[in-house]
Amino acid sequence: MNVYNKRVKNISKNTIRNNHGNYTTAFAPKGRFCVLLPLILMMILLVSCTVVAKDLNCSRLPQLMEAFHENHYAMKSITPEIKIHAVDQMIKRLDPSKTLLYESDLENLKPLLLDVFVSAEKGNCTSLQLVYDLLVARARENEAIVKKILGPDFRSDNKVALNTNVDKRPYPKTMAEKQELLKKIIQFQIENSLHAGIDLATAKKKQIHRYELQTMRVVEQNPVQLIATSAEAFARALDPHTSYLTPKNLEDLQIQMKLSLEGIGAVLSSDTGFTVIEELIPGGGAEKTGLLKPKDKIIAVAQEREMPVDVIDMDLRDVISMIRGKKGTRVTLTILRQADRQDRFNVTIMRDQIDVKEQEAKITYEIRNVGGRQYRFGVIDLPSFYGGEKGGKSSYEDVKKILAEARRQQVDGIVLNLSRNGGGLLEEAVRLAGLFIGKGGIVAVKDSRGQVTILANGSAAPVKEYDKRSIVAAPVEDSRALYMGPLVVLTSRLSASASEIVAGALQDYRRAVIVGSDHTFGKGSVQSIIPLPWELGAMKVTTGLYFLPGGKSTQKTGVIADVRLPGWFLLEDIGEAALDYPLPAQAIVPFLGVWGNAAPQWKPVDKPLIATLMSKSQSRIATDAKFAKIIKDNKEAAGKKDIIQLDDFRKTMKKENGGKENETPSEQRQKIREQYAPFVNESVNILRDMVTLGAVTP
C-alpha cells in the first residue's frame, strides 16, 4: 500500500442530522453507515463488545464538556453564547412540538437550565429536579386536556388549520391557547385513524392511550436521565454535527455498522415532533418508489395487513423500530409534504437489500443536432463515492473505465451528474477529480492546531519547513486515462461533502461549468467518533474543515452554481445554513499550484462563456413546460406557509395512495429518471452550447 492509501483512509459524507431532538439513525447498508461519518486522516475504531448502558452522572458531565472542547475544531472553551445555545437546545429536546410548555415556563426554565451548565462545571445538577417536576406537571396537564377534548362532545371541524412548521409556531401563552393547539393536533391525528378504517370510538381511545404513554415517558425520564439530555444539548450547541452518543445510541450505531444490506434506504431524523426523511440512499427501497423526497414528514407507519400507527410526537427510536423489519416484508409510510399540491399520501416500501448496482457509476448518451452536425454527449450518473474494500468496487475505477468507453464512443463532451450524490470516500473523490484535472491539489483539511494537509494527485512541490502544511499525493495518473474535453457538473442542494469537494475543485481550476440549484449543501466540516471511558458511550465531534484549491471552504455556502436551474423542491430548509449554529466559512492560502506551474491541458472556463451559457439556459427554461410546472409547484408550496387545513387534508386522503403499490423495479427507476430528466436534459443543452461556442480542448 502506498503512502497515499495509508494516510487517506477517511470518509467525506453529509453526516446524520437531527436539528431539534433525538439522535438520528440511518437505514443504511453495511459499510454505508461508515460513509455517513467522515473520519479524516484518522479512523477511531469503535469497541465491538456489547455496551452496558450506564447513566451519565453529574460528576462526569464537566469532564465530558471539557473533552468536547479539547477535541473540537473551533469551540475551545465554554462561552456565554454556548451556554445560551445549550439552553435553547435543551428546551427543544424537552418540548420539540411546543405542546408541553407555556411561554411563561420558558422564563422560569432558562435560568434553571443555564444554572445546570454553569453549575455542572462544579458537578452540581440539582436544578434538573425542578425541571423534571415542571415537565411531569405539564405532561399530566396535557393528558387531562386531551381526555376532555375527546369527551362525548368531540366533533370534527373541517375549517381547522394547523401550522406544521413548529419553528414558526409560538408557545401557548394560556391554557386556552394550549387547549386550542392540542385540539387542532388531535383532529388531524383522529382523521389519520379514520382514514385507516378505525372507527371513531377506537380512534379516540388510541389517542388517549397515546398521551398516557407520553406522560409515562416523561415520568420515567428522571433527573438523572436529564443529565444525558443536557450533554446532548451542550454538544449540539457547538455545531450541528457534534453530538453526545449515549451508550444505547452508540450500540445502535454499532448494530448499523454490522447489519447486512437490508432496510428501506433512508436517513431519518427527529425534527420538532416529526420523523423527517433527510436522505434517500441510492438503490434503497425508499428511493426506488420514486415518490419520496428529502424533508418529507412521516406521520404514520403501517405493517403489512395492519392498521397505521400515528407517529407524530413519537420518540425517533420507537418509529425506527416500527419501520425496521425482515427482508421481503412491506411497510407503509404515511407522508405529509408541503412541497407540492398533494399534502398527504401513502408509500409502501419493500424491505430489502440495498441494490449496490444502483449506486454504481453509469453512463448514458445524448444526441444533439446543431447546424447540420450531430453531437454525442456522455452523461455520467454518480450517486456516491463508493469503494474502500480491497478488490471491491471503486467509483474512481468505474469512472475511469467509463471515460475510456466515452472516448471510444468519440463523445463531444461529458456531464458529470452529482445532483443526488451525498458524498462518500474522500480518497475516491480525490482520485476521481484527478481524471479530469491530472496533477494538482484537490482538497485540504485543516485541524484545530492549524495544521493543513493537502490531498493531491501526482507529484507535489516540497513544503517549506515553516509552513504548517503537509501534502499527501496519490500516484501520477496515466495521461491516457485523463479526459480533458468539455465538462459540465450537475449539482443540487443534496450534493454534499465529497461531491462538493469534486465540484469545487473543478470549478476552482476553471475546468468545468457547474450547473445546479443555487448552491450545494454546504457541509465543509470533518467529524470523528471518539469512544468515552466509564462505558458512557461516545462523542461525535467536529475536528476540522475542508478547503478547496482556491483557498475557500465549502462550509455553509457550498459550491455556487455557475448556471442556476430551478429547484425541484423548496430549498430554504435544505443545507448547512438551515441548521442550528453552523460554523462560519474560513479561508486558507490557495494551493492550486502545489504540483508546479504547468499549463492546463484543457481550455479554462471563463466568465464571458458562463454569462453566455446562463443567458441561453434562462431563455430555454422560460419556455419549457416541465420547468414551468416545477416553478409553479414551488410557488404554490411557498404560498401555503406550512398551514394545512383539515378539509384539504381530508380531500387529499381520498385521492392519495401515491400510485401503484406494486410497481416493478423498472417502473420505479423510470419515475426517478422522470424527476431528474429536466435537469439532466438542460445540463446537456448547456454542454452543447459550450461546445458549439468553441469551448473545446486546445
Short recap of the structure:
The protein has 698 residues and is of the alpha+beta class. The protein has 20 helices and 25 strands.
The N- to C-terminal Cα distance equals 37 Å
Low-confidence stretches: 1-53, 257-261, 656-662
Radius of gyration (CA) equals: 26 Å
Helical stretch tally: 20
- Assign a percent range to the helix content: 25-40%
Which structural category fits the helices and strands? alpha+beta
- CATH topology annotation of the largest domain: 2-enoyl-CoA Hydratase, Chain A, domain 1
Strand content: 15-25%
The figure for the number of domains is 3
Task: Provide mean pLDDT, rounded.
Answer: 81
- Shape field: globular
State the name of the first-level CATH class of the largest domain: Alpha Beta
Strand count: 25
Assign the CATH architecture of the largest domain: Alpha-Beta Complex
Largest sheet: 7 strands, antiparallel
Verbal overview:
- There is one protein chain.
- With 698 residues, this protein is an alpha+beta fold.
- The strands form six sheets. Strands 2, 6, 7, 8, 9, 10 and 11 form a seven-stranded antiparallel β-sheet that branches. Strands 4, 17, 18, 19, 22 and 23 form a six-stranded mixed β-sheet that branches. It has a six-stranded mixed β-sheet with strand order 13-14-15-20-21-24, sandwiched between helices.
- Helix 16 links the parallel strand 20 (487-491) and strand 21 (513-516).
- The protein is globular.
